[in-house]
């Protein structure tokens, strides 16, 4: 393990101290605006207190989202202060070159990268899911997709007569992860519709098993074809048989974790949950690009903190006469916001133009890293 030098400890103490202050200041601002937005939904059991709890449970996700911007602002502020007081100039005279300064900032960013990873993988997704459940329980609603018909999921299962393909429509997902308004269209190995199953609700029993209640089944049974009928369209080849069951067990690869995408957007899911859902979509030959982009963004996002400190370093080479510290900090805020917007923009552009997901995730960070390295080269020469 590399031992931090004296100036690195001093620099780290300053940056971490300012970082905590800026993070809480930015977080408080987001919480204030989120609370104003939630007040519009306050009614009945969804009281102001419940709305506040909902907003506070979303705070870990907000921390994850603003961490790179907070790191950039804090690093720019500290380095600008050191430049205005000629402390950074003294370090340069003592032998600190640009490469060493950049490497030192990278070392100081490592703990913050780990913090970002923990919030993005463990704290944020779980808190976000719980926040949605708290709100749904208060207003007594279920979650469904943006479509009026609910969410559609493709599923497969192996039965003695062969592989069965299902198209499952779920009208809603309750906070306890039970599903309501279930309609299942089941196709045989020849892709002929064999069963239409409608259930009032379903509960997951574990081991890829669902218990459906109040089930109504319509089965399509093929009739033996009489000789000489040929291809007469008026002669029925199937007959429908309708049966009902109070409960029925259905084996399926679908799990509440897969359906939890209704509660949490892909950008706010953990990498593991995204990986599982992508695998499910691939197994059912469905489009995975949106979720793959979200997956690679989650992988790359903590590493953007290295880009942020690289962007901040050129400000240390600008002396006080080149502008006040406040102006530099304002420039850092604009730079951080532009990075955030570019990160979102390239996700949509990559999805629209079907770029490789990893390219959509890497382009913003790579672009801003090149800008930082170009700025460092310029200030180093001048």
Characterization of the model:
By secondary structure, the chain is an alpha+beta fold. It folds into 2 domains: 227 residues, no CATH class; 110 residues. The chain is built from 11 helices and 6 strands. Strands 1-2-3-4-5-6 form a 6-stranded antiparallel beta sheet, with no helix packed on it. Helix 5 crosses helix 9, helix 8 runs parallel beside helix 11 and helix 10 runs antiparallel to helix 11. InterPro entries: LptG, LptG/LptF_permease. It is found in: Cell membrane. It is a multi-pass membrane protein. It comes from Cupriavidus malaysiensis. Keywords: Cell membrane, Membrane, Transmembrane, Transmembrane helix.
Order of helices and strands: HHHHHEEEEEEHHHHHH
> First CA to last CA: what distance?
35 Å
Oligomeric form: single chain
Percent of residues in helices comes to: 40-55%
Number of domains: 2
Rounded average pLDDT: 86
Number of strands: 6
Strand content: 15-25%
Structural class: alpha+beta
The major beta sheet can be summarized as: 6 strands, antiparallel
Shape: elongated
Provide the gyration radius in Å.
Answer: 28 Å
**Which regions contain 5 or more consecutive residues with pLDDT less than 50?**
none
Count of individual helical segments: 11
* Sheet with most strands: strand arrangement: 1-2-3-4-5-6
